[in-house]
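The material for today's practical consists of a large collection of protein records. There is nothing in a record beyond a sequence line and a structure line. As an example, a complete record with its sequence and its structure tokens follows:
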Amino acid sequence: MARILIVDDSPSQLMSIRRIVEKLGHEALTAEDGAAGVEAAKRELPDLILMDVVMPNLNGFQATRSITRDPATKHIPVILVTTKDQDTDRVWGLRQGAKAYITKPFSESELACMIAQYLDGGSPA
């Protein structure tokens, strides 16, 4: 069982993703904005982070950059889970250190595959 941090400012999205993570048999940790997500990543050292982009305080791009550049948390894979679906957003997200980018709405199986891939230490096929 892995520990997965879900960072999203939408309570309904947070619960929806949490249900999928727990259904897969993993422990779900949550944070409601980017700043809280960075703090939770440092405190909890989860196995994987699912990060929204559009959030108050610190957006997902900024939070991802902070997590992936901090020696204490840079080993944690971050998957951006967002409504931002432009190619430029995807490229920018990956340049901030995210391992993958998935757009909302997504299917449960799509998210499950992405989680499995990065928990196994894999890279995109």
